[in-house]
């Protein structure tokens, strides 16, 4: 009897102990690894805004690897030879009649670097804008500068999905993740980019003078002042206006940009790649490395080159041993690799003086201002050491010449210039597929996830 | 008043004692083993419908006193034997001689049904599979516990990632319960919730293969020494596992280790020595000038022809890398024994196995101490401690990208006339066919994991109250599981691919720690209510899981160095911490009417910090009933000695993944600055656990005095709230949010027929045949249909849509007539599995056992042949089966050629998984030779993975390059070939 009482007593004590540190009570567990998005929505501190600005620079370069490899393959500026996955050849070159579908190889269900990533930059910019406007730690001028910067990046990024799906159109109302707006045609999409850049221009103008209020990376090394950022904005605007065939707009924007007919053609803002913990330059390959996965110069670029073109010597490195990858259709032989990057921490420019001068040439040519067009062309030609332009000066000849110069001046830049240029001048059939027996795509359909959302939202 | 009460109590007690002194009788007896005639130690004698009983002594004898003269029924039982009921009374059967028969059909086995109670198999209302140590490790030596379960559990589909030493297996019980993650069963080792996760090693990162699910890391059940296991019980679905609540959707595997028993101290030493060779190789295609001129581009042909002509001999690289003989050794020492108060079981194990690929292997050192002590007659404490150190060298196989650091992937491209072997100075030639020399990788690269682990369990039973027909017991149990896994993947700077990098040399270091604790307290009250035995239990459970991992990478290494400080690029690749807390309460009521009708109802309520609302309890009810028709008095058949229809229903849940509720700002470094970027997942703060309901019914038959038994079970398992990522419009800058939309249904049939086919004095043949099948169907998707898994439609992917099994394999060419838009090429789910287990015993000394498994149907996506076709090395590549002038390797059926269908292959097989032949030295011979120094000697030899019969064009139809996954676990990319393992055994008992 006594033992039983003792046990009952003991279990009561044990029970009390249990409830003093109640084992049924759970602690609140917050994310131990990251802050939440909600933490910046109200009264963000200055350092939180700084982190968002740097985050925007990071998102801003999200497209580089995919667009550089894929779009430049579509435009036959390069081949991305990949010994481990033949689909980089078969699918990207459209061999055996392959046509892009909604989950095409290299783009996944979200469109990857050509769709989802630019939109992530756009969302990041929007988060930055709302954090900036919902805090009291910034002056009105500082707010204008930061919002202007964010709008500039948005303008740039909207052009990427727009050019990816082209006539299929894109969404421009994308603030509410659960309620995205309708698709608008290509022209409206580019016009939306233009309006963001125009808004950015006004905001940057109203932000006063002096330096950008927060720290930017070395990618903006020569562009730290508000005036210089405005010049980048206008350079991007000129690219937008070209796509809108707003020729005068191009020239006006160029006037306010960093274009310099006598200056360094390489000048321009860049995406920095400084190595761990940052990324490495994704376009860099060690010269002559005995590897079977590498970006090589497309044979048509080599075949069409003007003898003595300094750009060929500077940009293309002839390998000791060519890289050969066999495919279903035909083997691909890469004799030259990309020589633009001295190291794997070289930054990648996203708009350069050289392009601006070519935009100027194109706009003048289209406006019938032949001399001014030729003058701009000659700046490029002389830099390439191939002498002044001596050909015909009718519009078609000039456009031929400008597109040709763009192939070499803007070769394999992270934008897919050749593909976009050939399409806007309806010359996709001029892209040489004889070396790979593939086809040239016109555009991509909307990624599967995009379509799926509409189906889901309808239900 | 008080005095009156005291007085009547005294009167009552004296009356009781008077009866006790005046009317009593005693029963004594001896219990022996029917087959051997040996006395049985520790057999239990229980008076039916009471808690009264005793156990037999060292000579198999017992004596039992009765308080009065009324007749009683004794239940005489022992683990592994069929029990017997004997009616006794003062004038009848007071001196007994009972011989017990071996329980070949396991009717008497005790099965866990609640968190603190057990039930006899013959009373069970669920199809719970049990695997004894005899079945688990008695035939041959299996590296890991999960590997030892192959073909032994009806309803379990077990799949190995590949043949690399050190484990890496997944278990699916009753089909697919979840669309995400691995969906592996909960594993409980002596009451401890142990971690069985697959661990990241960094192999996939360093070799470029992709996500960590392509690491081919081992799951950590590999740490457990299978020889320590006494039995494994598999609760296959919610109807049996409901009392385990939130983590039981994929089933529960309950592992119980061996414990000491009263008596002489037994020392047992076992040594296995063996060797392993590949079970199956495929051969490679030869080369000719004609083939070179077909295969290579024109400008390459002269070089290749020259190499071909100058070649001094061919090298079969498959043979070179894989066809090696590995030495296997497993040493086990156990000491067990004890007295009335204290019992112990101590075991040590050194497992040292090489792999068939050079520089691979698995070493495990395990030390276990299981102690049981009766603190008083009413308080019993049991503790189990296990320290393990496992070292795994897994080498480089599987998927890769560009780095060439995968043997199979690499050699798929190397023609046999090119010599990759190092010259006399040790210099490896540059491989002109791929980015790396695989011999240099195999000789010099490192892919190691070093696990240190400690598992501690305790169990405290306190008898609070014991009367003649009831008892109240408290049970407090729990424990912890701690491990640390240090991993290193190292590619030295002089490798061909590394030399082509800006910073040659790559070392990827990982440290992962996991600490799980669990605690449970329960009260069990057992009483007789008329003829019904009632067992009530109530309790609570608390679980805590913490994990942390840190991965660092150094590139640009000082030659020969792996230390991160010797790297020019030092990078923190990932740091991830997680903490999960869960709590639950449960009640369960069992009622047993004279072993005729047995019913159980119970509920568990759980909450978890993983859920959107961490404070909401989710309820998991269960109910079951079984009718032992043959135990009713009206039943009078000598043929059908057991007939038990049964039905059970239960609900469980699958946990939400950690972090599903978070919307993150992630760190992103750029240009020397740190940025915060908006993550691409929107957290779902209303996420609920995946829940499953299961209705299971069946019938158990015992034939010819239970010499044969048949278990037939049909189940319908429905899961709701299945978590999958709802894809948001990526144009909004976010990609996913977890959703609870999908629903799945699994229906299946499980049959098990077992029995002693021949039972003569000197020849005994036991056989068990099992059959199981499962059909899964997506009954609701809730979000737009999608394809996922594998490598996209061109190489075969999986189709997620309402009305289809998510295991449906679709791919190119496009088929507008099918809702997926693609052609359906197969289904990963087998049509059925069947296995046969046989034990033949001759003269009690010679024992032969073998296990065969047959899987019919189920397709794999075989991308190994995709690679060798691209490299021209598939055996028969240059043949031309349809005679159209295009070699086979460039024109794979089905027509239209070269679409996804060419890689989707039937993975049916028959495997002889285990064969064992053992000879036990007769006792007399032993005494003559060794005197009393040795108690027993046993010799044997055995084979694991003895034979494989299949049309599948791969090393093993059971493989998964993506490791354990609920779907897409059947993709084959250059795996480590499965070994055939042959052992010689010596067991000495002192």
TrEMBL record, chain A:
It comes from Cyclobacterium xiamenense. It comes from the Bacteria. Keywords: Cell outer membrane, Membrane, Signal. Its main location: membrane. This is SusD family protein. CDD domains: SusD. Belongs to the SusD family. Residues 343-447 form the RagB/SusD domain. One of its GO terms (cellular component) is cell outer membrane. It is found in: Cell outer membrane.
């Amino acid at each position: 009897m006594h033992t039983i009482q003792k046990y009952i007593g003991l279990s009561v004590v044990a029970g009390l102990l249990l409830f003093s540190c109640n084992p049924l009570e759970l602690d609140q567990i917050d994310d131990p690894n990251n802050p939440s998005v909600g933490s910046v929505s109200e009264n963000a501190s200055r350092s939180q805004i700084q982190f968002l600005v740097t985050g925007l620079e990071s998102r801003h370069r999200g497209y580089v690897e995919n667009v550089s490899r894929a779009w430049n393959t579509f435009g036959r500026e390069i081949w991305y030879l990949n010994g481990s996955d033949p689909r980089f050849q078969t699918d990207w070159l459209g061999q055996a009649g392959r046509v892009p579908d909604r989950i095409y190889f290299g783009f996944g269900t979200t469109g990857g670097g050509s769709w989802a990533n630019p939109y992530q930059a756009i969302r990041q910019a929007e988060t930055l804008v709302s954090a900036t406007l919902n805090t009291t730690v910034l002056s009105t001028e500082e707010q204008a500068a930061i919002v202007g910067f964010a709008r500039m990046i948005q303008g740039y990024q909207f052009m990427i999905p727009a050019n990816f799906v082209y006539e299929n159109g894109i969404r421009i109302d994308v603030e509410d993740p659960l309620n995205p707006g309708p698709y608008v045609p290509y022209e409206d999409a580019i016009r939306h980019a233009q309006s963001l850049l125009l808004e950015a221009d006004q905001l940057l103008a109203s932000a006063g003078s002096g330096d950008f209020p927060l720290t930017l990376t070395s990618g903006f090394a020569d562009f730290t002042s508000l005036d210089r950022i405005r010049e980048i904005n206008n350079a991007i605007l000129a690219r937008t206006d070209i796509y809108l065939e707003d020729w005068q707009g191009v020239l006006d924007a160029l006037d306010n940009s960093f274009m310099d007919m006598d200056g360094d053609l390489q000048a321009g803002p860049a995406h920095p790649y400084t190595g761990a913990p940052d990324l490495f330059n994704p376009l860099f390959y060690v010269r002559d490395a005995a590897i079977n996965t590498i970006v090589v110069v497309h044979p048509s670029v080599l075949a069409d080159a003007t003898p003595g073109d300094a750009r060929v010597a500077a940009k293309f490195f002839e390998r000791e041993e060519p890289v050969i990858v066999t495919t279903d259709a035909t083997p691909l032989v890469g004799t030259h690799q990309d020589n633009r990057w001295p190291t794997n921490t070289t930054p990648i420019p996203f708009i350069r003086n050289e392009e601006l001068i070519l935009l100027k040439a194109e706009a003048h040519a289209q406006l019938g201002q032949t001399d001014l067009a030729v003058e701009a062309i000659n700046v490029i030609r002389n830099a390439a050491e191939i002498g002044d332009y001596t050909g015909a000066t009718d519009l078609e000849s000039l456009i031929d010449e400008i597109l040709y110069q763009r192939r070499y001046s803007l070769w394999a830049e992270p934008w897919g210039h050749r593909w976009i240029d050939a399409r806007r001048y309806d010359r996709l059939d001029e892209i040489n597929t004889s070396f790979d027996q593939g086809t040239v795509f016109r555009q991509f359909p909307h990624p599967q996830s995009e379509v799926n959302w509409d189906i889901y939202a309808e239900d | 008043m008080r005095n009156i009460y005291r007085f009547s109590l005294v009167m009552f007690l004296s009356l009781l004692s008077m009866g006790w002194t005046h009317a009593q009788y005693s029963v004594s007896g001896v219990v022996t083993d029917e087959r051997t005639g040996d006395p049985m130690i520790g057999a239990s004698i229980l008076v039916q419908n009471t808690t009264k009983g005793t156990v037999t002594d060292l000579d198999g004898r017992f004596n039992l006193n009765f308080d009065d003269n009324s007749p009683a029924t004794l239940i005489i039982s022992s683990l592994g034997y069929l029990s017997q009921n004997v009616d006794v009374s003062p004038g009848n059967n007071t001196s007994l001689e009972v011989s017990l028969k071996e329980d070949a059909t396991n009717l008497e086995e005790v099965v866990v049904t609640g968190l603190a109670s057990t039930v006899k198999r013959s009373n069970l209302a669920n199809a719970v599979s049990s695997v004894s140590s005899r079945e688990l490790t008695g035939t041959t030596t299996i590296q890991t516990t999960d590997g030892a379960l192959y073909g032994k559990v009806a309803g379990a589909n077990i799949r190995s990632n590949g043949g690399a030493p050190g484990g890496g297996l997944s278990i699916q019980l009753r089909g697919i319960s979840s669309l995400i993650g691995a969906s592996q069963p909960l594993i409980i080792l002596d009451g401890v919730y142990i971690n069985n996760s697959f661990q990241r090693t960094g192999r996939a990162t360093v070799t470029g293969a992709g996500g960590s699910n392509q690491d081919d890391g081992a799951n950590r059940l590999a740490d457990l020494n299978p020889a320590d296991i006494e039995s494994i019980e598999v609760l296959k679905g919610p109807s049996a596992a409901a009392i385990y609540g939130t983590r039981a959707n994929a089933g529960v595997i309950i592992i119980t280790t061996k414990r000491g028993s009263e008596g002489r101290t037994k020392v047992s030493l076992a040594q296995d020595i063996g060797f392993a060779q590949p079970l199956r190789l495929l051969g490679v295609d030869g080369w000719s000038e004609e083939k070179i001129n077909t295969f290579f581009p024109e400008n390459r042909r002269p070089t290749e022809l020259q190499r071909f002509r100058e070649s001094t001999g061919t090298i079969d690289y498959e043979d070179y890398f894989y066809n090696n003989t590995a030495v296997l050794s497993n040493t086990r020492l156990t000491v067990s024994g004890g007295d009335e108060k204290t019992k112990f079981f101590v075991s040590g194990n050194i497992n040292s196995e090489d792999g068939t690929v050079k520089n691979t292997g698995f070493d495990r050192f395990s030390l276990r101490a299981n102690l049981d002590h009766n603190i008083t007659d009413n308080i019993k404490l049991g503790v189990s401690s296990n320290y393990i150190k496992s070292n795994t060298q897994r080498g480089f196989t599987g998927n890769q990208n560009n780095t060439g650091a995968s043997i199979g992937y690499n050699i798929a491209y190397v023609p046999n006339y090119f010599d990759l072997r190092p010259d006399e100075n040790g210099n490896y030639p540059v491989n002109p066919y791929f980015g790396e020399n695989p011999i240099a990788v195999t000789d010099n690269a490192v892919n190691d994991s070093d696990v240190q682990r400690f598992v501690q369990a305790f169990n405290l039973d306190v008898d609070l109250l014991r009367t003649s027909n009831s008892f109240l017991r408290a049970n407090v149990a729990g424990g912890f599981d701690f491990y640390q896994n240090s991993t290193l993947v190292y590619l030295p700077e002089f490798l061909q691919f590394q030399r082509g990098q800006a910073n040659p040399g790559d070392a990827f270091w990982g440290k992962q720690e996991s600490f799980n604790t669990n605690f449970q307290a329960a009260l069990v009250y057992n009483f007789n209510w008329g003829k019904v035995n009632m067992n009530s239990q109530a309790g609570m459970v608390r679980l805590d899981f913490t994990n942390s991992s840190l991965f660092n990478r150094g590139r640009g290494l000082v030659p020969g160095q792996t230390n991160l400080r010797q790297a020019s690029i030092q990078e923190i690749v990932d740091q991830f911490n997680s903490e999960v807390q869960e709590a639950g309460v449960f009640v369960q009521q069992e009622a047993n009417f004279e072993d005729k009708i047995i019913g159980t109802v119970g509920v568990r309520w759980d909450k978890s910090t993983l859920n959107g609302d961490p404070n909401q309890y989710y309820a998991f009810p269960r109910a079951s009933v079984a009718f032992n028709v043959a135990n009713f008095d009206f039943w009078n058949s000598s043929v059908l000695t057991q007939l038990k229809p049964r039905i059970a229903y239960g609900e469980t849940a699958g946990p939400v993944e950690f972090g599903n509720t978070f919307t993150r700002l992630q760190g992103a470094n750029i240009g020397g600055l740190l940025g915060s970027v908006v993550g691409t997942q929107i957290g779902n703060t209303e996420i609920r656990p995946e829940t499953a309901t299961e209705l299971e019914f069946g019938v158990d038959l015992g034939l010819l005095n239970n010499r044969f038994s048949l278990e037939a079970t049909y189940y319908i398992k429905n899961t709701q709230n299945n978590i999958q990522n709802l894809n948001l419009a990526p144009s909004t800058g976010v990609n996913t949010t977890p959703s609870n939309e999908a629903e799945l249904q699994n229906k299946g049939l499980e049959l098990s027929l077992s029995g002693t086919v021949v039972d003569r004095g000197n020849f005994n043949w036991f056989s068990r045949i099992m059959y199981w099948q499962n059909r899964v169907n997506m009954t609701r998707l809730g979000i737009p249909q999608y394809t996922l898994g594998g490598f996209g439609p061109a190489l075969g992917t999986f189709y997620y849509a309402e009305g289809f099994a998510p295991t449906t394999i679709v791919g190119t060419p496009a088929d507008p007539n099918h809702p997926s838009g693609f052609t359906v090429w197969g289904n990963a789910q087998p049509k059925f599995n069947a296995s046969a287990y046989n034990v033949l015993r001759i003269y009690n000394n010679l024992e032969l056992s073998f296990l065969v498994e047959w899987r019919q149907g189920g397709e794999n996506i075989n991308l190994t042949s995709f690679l060798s076709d691209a490299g021209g090395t598939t055996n028969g590549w240059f043949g031309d089966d349809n005679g159209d002038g295009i070699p086979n390797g460039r024109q794979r059926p089905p027509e239209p050629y070269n679409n996804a269908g060419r890689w989707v292959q039937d993975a049916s097989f028959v495997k002889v998984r285990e064969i064992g032949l053992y000879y036990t030295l007769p006792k007399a011979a032993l005494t003559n030779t060794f005197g009393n120094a040795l108690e027993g000697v046993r010799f044997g030899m055995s084979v694991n993975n003895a034979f494989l019969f299949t049309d599948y064009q791969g090393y093993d139809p059971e493989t998964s390059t993506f490791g354990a996954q609920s779907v897409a676990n059947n993709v084959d990319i250059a795996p480590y070939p499965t070994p055939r393992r042959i052992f010689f055994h010596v067991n000495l008992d002192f």
